[in-house]
Design brief:
alpha+beta; four-stranded mixed beta sheet; 4 strands
């Protein structure tokens, strides 16, 4: 689906798509400036392993932004923030927001920085 949706950018060399998971990206260490995950962190089978991998691939000063339904994680945003800090991230910030549509549920947001 991503290949089809982004075909033009891939053809122009502006985007490279690779297969991976949050816990096994296949990317080199310190190779990314930002990691963005929307509506999938709650599907990660091993959250601590995924957070460790995302920390590994970010460059120092790189930022991670996660967004998921507010009902994830089951223990709440404070527990997620603790897991992110335990993975080595700093400047961990959490908040929730309600998208401006009737169909969308409240979203949990988290941002953190790799130092």
């Amino acid at each position: 689906m991503a290949q089809t949706a982004c075909d033009h950018s891939v053809a122009r060399g502006r985007l490279r798509l690779t297969l991976g998971t949050a816990a096994r990206t296949g990317e080199p260490a310190a190779s990314a400036d930002i990691v963005i995950s929307v509506n999938n962190p709650h599907l990660w089978p091993d959250v601590p392993a995924a957070l460790a991998e995302l920390h590994r691939v970010l460059r120092p000063g790189g930022r991670m932004v996660l967004s998921a339904p507010a009902k994830w994680p089951p223990a709440g945003l404070p527990a997620l923030a603790d897991m992110v800090a335990a993975a080595g991230f700093d400047s961990v910030r959490t908040w929730t927001w309600r998208p401006p549509t009737r169909m969308a549920s409240t979203a949990a947001q988290l941002s953190a920085v790799r130092t």
